[in-house]
Design a protein that fits this description.
By secondary structure, this protein is of the alpha+beta class. 34% of the residues lie in helices and 34% in strands. The chain has one helix spanning 43-70; strands spanning 4-9, 16-26, 29-39. 1% of the residues are buried.
Length: 82
Amino acid sequence: PPYRFVDEMRRGPYRYWRHLHTFQEQDGGTNVIDQVDYGVPGGALVNWLLVRRDLQQIFTFRCETLKQRFGGTNSTADSEHG
């Protein structure tokens, strides 16, 4: 902080996890940008079948919660990493 910070998973269910949180001033408010790079055991197939949808739901919930608490109009990011 104040402009960005990174979460990195050292141990857990993912082969690796890096979540960059970035905050940018925009139109008198703050734009929150999440960039997640991760890998799962089992590779692309496991990601597509089991993980991708869960992560989309998690970050959609996060986006909606931020909008409810702080206002705003931006939607979730379209890009995927993994």
